[in-house]
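Box 3.1 — From sequence to structure: Amino acid transporter
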Amino acid sequence: MQKKLKLWDAIMLVMGSMIGSGIFIVSADMMRNLGSGYWMIVVWVITGIMTVAAAISYGELSALFPKAGGQYTYLKEIFGKRMGFLYGWGLFTVIQTGTIAAVAMAFGKFTAYLVPALNDAQPIFQSGEFKITWIQILAIAIIILLTYINTRGVESGKLLQNIFTGSKIIALLGLIAAGFILVDFSHLSENFASGYEAFSNLKKDAGGDFLKNGWEPIGGMTLLGGIAAAMVGSVFSSVAWESVTFVSGEIDNPKKNVVKSMIFGTSAVMILYIAVNFVYLNSLDRDSIAFAANDRVAVAASHHIFGSAGTVIIALLVMVSTFGCDNGLILAGARVFQTMAKDGMFFQAAEKNNKNEVPGNALWMQGVWASLLCLSGQYGNLLDMISFVIVLFYMITVFGVIYLRFKQPDLERPYKTWLYPVTPIIYLLIGAGFCILLLIYKQQYTWPGFVLVLLGLPVYYFINRNKKARE
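Predicted structure (token representation):
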């Protein structure tokens, strides 16, 4: 593969893949689970520590295995082909493609803010609960367009990524500055007034619906359950940084630049996320965050900051953000499926590069499946179910750093994890706590995704049986 991506390009890929639609939406649900500005910031800080700790740990593996495939390659090399395949299976069936679909749908929904006719239009097709809308068609069009651009060569995808990621970083910085300069009355003190002692949550009525202004003090294990539920949103907004490892084969000096891009990129994004949440807490009271229309807390904050023009400003920002995010996800994901094909673990056609030296077939396979997920309307549910599994695979990969230190202590390591073993252990402890609390309090987020990944086992054995038969 040609080394066409420099350090800056890699950082832009990390940041661009992370910043999608989540940061503009998830804080509403987080506030409903936590009821406190103090605890909302605590959850974002925990997520930030967790994310950067994982990136620092991944750096050691990226330097040991500086080739395309990233996390799939690490898991395969450390724990064997079966573990690598299960990750790749999950990545193709929902983790990468489901995220591409969800981000494209977010682009469509915020476009409908500027073009209300998209919201008001009758479904193109409807049969019972299943329907196809113009927003879904727009989302698919975006996926097809970005897939086509990326088949034109890595330079095309890189240019698009740098432009859109740079634009949304500048826009976010502008929103953060305006969120403190232009707000007449700050809600920060009241949102932090309860401090860490009075944790609150929403009451529900007899029908299970949330009651506005219905807050009651709670604590103990319920606090931990609330934190775990809130972290589903913050974790979802903070994943996909590992996409840069998928394109290691095309990064200049990957032994150094991949780890630098992950650490710099994740740190910068988490600082931006925390700052944006301070803007929400500064410009809106607690109920306005928790009960923002359609969870669009960024729209509510922007309307408060900029007036009626705020909805247009935030809609444009989210459109830029989601467009750039999807480009990064599409660019990176196909490289994993190409690497799997080379190992005999994916469709053989995905192995080939096209005339532009990029995996054209793998890109289109990824694009078609993501488009089908858009049509199904189930990508959102799938992503909720897979949050648990994403963290589980992160944990297995981070544990691989420790495992390799014991198994092959004399292996030459161009980069060693900072503060080893403290850094990987921090991630493993936070990740384990998150997963255990979800298993206890939010099982709808755990077992379905786990079962979905385990369905890859019979596929793995079927593939290997066929390979043995051919041999």
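Summary of the box: Residues 7-465 form a domain with the Amino acid/polyamine transporter I fold (CATH 1.20.1740.10).
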